[in-house]
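**Fold in tokens:**
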Amino acid sequence: MSLALVKMSRPSPVDELAARYPDVPRLIIVKTDVQRRGVHYAENALGLLDERLHQTTGTHIFGARDGKIAARPESLLLRDGSSIITTPTPLEENPYVVDLRDGQPWLFDEGVPMEQVDYWPAPAFYAKTSSSGVPMKNIVSARPQRLNIFPYRYCTFWNNGKGCSFCDIVEQLKKGNKELQIPAKLDPVEVGEVVGEALKEPGRFSSVFLTSGSIVGGTRPFDDEVDYYIAILKEVGKNFRTFKYPSQMIGTAFDKEQLRRLYAETGLTSFTSDIEVLDEELFNRYCPGKTEWIGYQEWKRRLVDAVDIFGRGRVNTGLVAGIELAGPHGFRSEDEALEKTLSEAEELARQGVSTVFIVWSPRPDTPLGKYRNASLDYYIRLARGLHALRVKYRLPIDHDSYRNCGNHPDSDLSRLLPLWEE
């Protein structure tokens, strides 16, 4: 039964903001609002899903907004070829509805068709199994143009209950092990095997991406995490003719010696370490494990250290944008939050570190899950502000662009607007 039946009783917020910010393409505004509100798949739309042709809910280390694991589209493509990384959301939370129009999937807002979309196509290796018999899609997953490796589906900050307040990695681990039979920890050799199989599809993938939960163990804190990543990246590198290959890793804020090892011993070409929120008080409150083991100021220092190793425009940090406004401890207004965030982002940009954001998706199994994210206007202003900093400080973001990620409204702007004037 179709859910897209009602007529919108108000002007579309997307079109209102497209008129207010003519420098931001409408499709980026649509994408941002879909990430902000989530999606709900109508039965007709799910009937179009073909697991032989399309990617379905896969290996990502975080859960859905409705707390479920089910056979649903991994995510959506817009008509300009860019991705929307989104999550299924309960209908009562007013998400966009994906339903059919003339036999094709569309995004509907209160019954009004907004944009035609498509489901992500499944790569050929998804139908194969590894040498140990594990489905290859449970070892390496894909975005339309990127290979994803999630090697460790736990974060040891949760050992004493100090994981980040927006994070449901532990709950998703429990569900993934039971319902999807995804290994909790991957074998580096097997990861290399699957990447090699994936690369047999010429021209399909433009980069390799790796991230997982933090591992605090080792002679020095996080040495075990670094050793594990090096082992994986070396196996992946065997599939390339050159030592360095297009790649990104999101890891803990490692010290300079650990960063040197990652760069010197592997083919890694860019480094990201997510600070999550650019405010020390909120960082301490919402990221207690990161505070306990590293701390806010040291996290920023280590990001700058990484620039000395990877180079300007090859290091960035990520924000879970919206948590800075959540609950009783957040900023009192969006203007205040924007001013503080962009001020601290500029301090990092001046030193060669770029800042990107994802739209916070409150998940039910998290301490912040009961709160709402920010307004669409806030996210568009934040995207414009972060893009302007990259223009001002001449920081390319190719390694985390619409093609290699697709999850950052701000870095999407780098494709469509000049990065800087010559």
